[in-house]
Structure formats: structure tokens, C-alpha cells
What does this fold into?
Amino acid sequence: MHRIVSPKKAQKIMTAVFWGSGILTVLIMLIIIGYILWKGMPVVNLNFIFGEPVDSGASGGIAPMIVSSIYVTLIAGLVAAPIGVGAAVYLSEYTKENIFVKLIRFGSETLASIPSIVFGLFGLAFFVVFLGMGWSLLSGGLILALMALPTIFQVAEVSIGSVPKSYSEGSLALGATKWQTVYKVVLPAAVPGITTGVILGMARAISEAAAIMFAVGSALAMPLSVFDPGRPLPLHLYVLATEGISLQNAYGTAAVLVIIILVITVLTNTLVERYSKKMMGR
Amino acid sequence: MKDRLGEFLIEKGLFITAISSVVIILLIIVFIFSEGLPAMESYGFLNFIFGSTWDPSSGQYGILPMIVGSMGITLLALIFSVPLSLLCAIFMAEIAPKTVRKIMKPVIETLAGIPSVVYGFFGLIVLVPLMRTYFGGTGFSMLTASIILTVMILPTIVSVSEDSIRSVPSEYKEASLALGATHWQTIKNVIFPAAVPGVITAIILGMGRAIGETLAVIMVAGNVAQFPSSIMDPVRALTSNIALEMGYATGMHYSALFATAIVLFMLIMILLVIANYFHYKKKINVGGGYL
It folds into this structure.
């Protein structure tokens, strides 16, 4: 084969290309995050965080949106975590690899890849209309629970699966029942991993707007309960930006969202690091 | 005895949680199809898919322009994103020192975590004006949308293909290096080819994310329901079509939007089946080491 570039030179060029692509990726992240924070942080102050919106959000704060976001994200976490963890326990402790397990995994993968707007339509048809929950934070939170479920399930399954078999064998040999073993031995050992999964699932829920835009009613008033309509942060940002209501407040809302995501990323990384250290030290 | 009953109930309870995702999928199918099929039936399935006019006010429900729009945005995004993502994945798996990799991982996670509305907002206030200045027109175009999607699907492609590159048995690499190949030759001729099935899965998953993305695309694509004549033309994606019109749709229009969701759902299912096929293939293809 005729060589245009010597292997040594190719090695040098490609090393540079690889480093370049890595650096470019970091730069893209820094530019997006940096720009949003640079433009948004001057807007974010106590009045913005704790204030009510004025003139459909043209001025004033985002307190009702923060409360709405907390409501829907909590509902998503509280509903999806037990189901996701339960499913993970069943798959890794109560059954063997068979066609049924494959079906459940495929179901979970499918759930993870369904476009958010399809969830939005389903939520409208099912929760809002069919179950009669109306435009409320409850309808929105339940849709987000469905979206958080596959994330929680997948991470929980991996972390329950990585608890050494000797743990549960030891417990069973001591005469503990299956559930006692799961509850007292396996789950505690998997807690950091499960927590990471739940946080990631809730992160997906707190960032979502398309799935809930037809379910939460998009009201500006402070929601008093989960049965009230509300407008979570991402949806507020979407409305502010696309209806040209206030660029300033849009920057501020975007900055708040970015900060939430940064906190979540740091939190999950710390958890994972601590977890892997614990597993290594054993 | 009480113990045994408790254990039995717990097992059944866990079983119910396990099948919940399958049940949810079935519910989604039932509700989307029961709302969407009436429009497909009365307008005609072929007219719906291949009709080139979308004009609900005159009862025209052809979604071909949106199918073309979604495909165009997605393909462009893949053309931009796949090379960068794969280089980045190889960089993280093979080239980067441990400390650099420790920086790259949270960077990729942050890119994956940024809400799609924030991406759309960034596109709207930064990218659209840039495109307007350098390429003319309104700045809202298929190209603008695909650039935003390029960044949004990057984390998916990077993390899945990095996993697959990492899981290539290290004997492969060691043997190649021992034969005197350079690291790049080893990557090009040994490691990457062995990781290809996983990489294809990664690309398909990225593609799924691109097709399914809604609000970020709405904010930068221009949303005109017409066939684009170039990549600088505004387009409307299937997802955008639903999000833009659902707020005020009634009757046949309402049903036609659910029918649009059926089409999206089918597209995603096809991609998933293909991704699973390659995932399965990965397990049998690489001779000695099970991946």
C-alpha cells in the first residue's frame, strides 16, 4: 500500500485532532453555560427568586415557577422512585434472565426513547382528560414520573446488580427471608447508586417543558396545592422567550435552570465517586 | 405462616412494579392510537403521510413536509455530530490522561443535563442572529436547528460509543501495539472496528434524540410547514407541529396531531429495533472476547 503520510506523522496529526475535539467539546459547554450565566446572573437576586411575576412575567420574579417546578419534580421522584427501584429489585433478585426480563428491559428502553411531546399528548389524553385530573401540577408531575422511571430503573438495576452475591448469600444462610435480605442487606449496600439514579431521574423531570405544556395549565399564580395549575421553570423560559415577553427575565430563568443542572452534576459525581471508593476499599 | 404470606405479597408487589413500564407503553399506544387513528382513517393513511399540504383551516392534513423537515434536521445534525462525537469518545477512552478524562466526564454530563429549552434559548439569542449576519435571511433555518441538535445529541453518542470502545478487550490493543503498530494505527485498524456495533447503537440513539426533540427545534427552525428548497430555509419538524398547534386544536385537527404522534412513535420504535439488533450483534461478532 502506498503511504502518503508516514505512520509516525499520522500518529502526531491524529493525536492533535483527538485533543482538538476534546477541547472543542469542553469549549462548547463553557460557551453555552458561560453565556447564560453571564447574561442571567445579574438578573438573579432575592427579589427575582422570591418575587411574584408582574405583567405575565415581563418583570417581577419567578417564585411561583420555582414552587411549580418543585411540586412536579417531587411528584415525579416520589412516584417513580419506588416503582423503578421495585422493578430493579425484582429483576435482579427475584427472577432469572429470560424472555420476560428482556421484555421489561425493552419496555424500559422504549419508555426512555419516546419523544417528550408524545408523553405530552398521552398525558393530556390520559391524566388530564380520561382520569379527570384537569390542568394541574399533579397531571404534569405524573407525566414526568413516567419519564423519570426508566432512568431510575436502569441506574438502580446496575447498582443493585453490583452488590456482591456473597452479601445476600450470607444473609440467606443466616435464615433471613428473601425480602429481609433485600431490605436489610442488598438495598442499603446499593443506596448511593439508587440515590444517583433518583437524582438523575428528577433532573430529567425538572428540565422538561414539552411533555407538560398541555397538562399543567401554564398559570402564573402561586400554586397552593398539586391540584392547582402552575408553570414550571422550563415552560416559563419557553413562554418568555418565544412570546417575546422579557429577554431579561428569560436570561434569569435560564441561569437558574443552569445552576440547578450544575448542582445536580456535581452532586451525582460526588456520590458516584464516594460509592466507587467504598467498593474499592472493601 | 404470616411471614410466608408477607413474602408472597411483596414478591407480587415487586412483580407489578417490574411490569409497569410495559403497561405504561401499552397505555400510551392505546391512548395515542385511539385519538389519532380516526384522523388517519378519515383523511386516508397515504394522504396523511404523503400529502404535501398542511393547512388545518382548510382541512388539509398532509405531513410530508414535516417528515422531510424532521429527517433533514436530523441527518444534518448527525453529519456534524458523529465525527466530533466519535473523535471525542476515542479521545476520552484512549488518548486522554486520567486527569483530563476526569474533567471530560462531567462536561459531557452537563451537556446532557442542560434542559432543551435552554439550548433552544441559546440558539434563539446567539445562533439565530449569527446565522442572519453571516448567511442572510431570517436566521431561522434547518441548518440553525441542526447545529443546536448537534450539541444536544453529542453527549448521547459520546457516552455510548465511549463505553463500547472501552469494552474492547485490552488483549486486542496489546497485540497490535506489540506487533509494532502505532497507537493511531491500533485505534484505526483494531479498536474502532471492534467497537463499531456499539458505535452504531450510539448513533441510532442520538438520531432518536434528534427526531424527538421539540422545543429547542421550535425556537430556531422557523416552523414553516413547507418543503425546504435548501438547508437555509425554515422548516417544521413533526414534534414542532404537535407542540405549536395542540393548544388550540379541536376535532379533526386534534386527532391529526395525535396521528402525527403515531408517526413519531413508529419512527422511534423502528430505530429502537435497529439499535437492539446491533446491540445483539455486538455480543456475537467479536470472536474471542465477549463484549
About this structure: Residues 2-43 of chain B form the longest helix (42 residues). Chain B has a mean pLDDT of 90. Chain B has eleven helices and two strands.
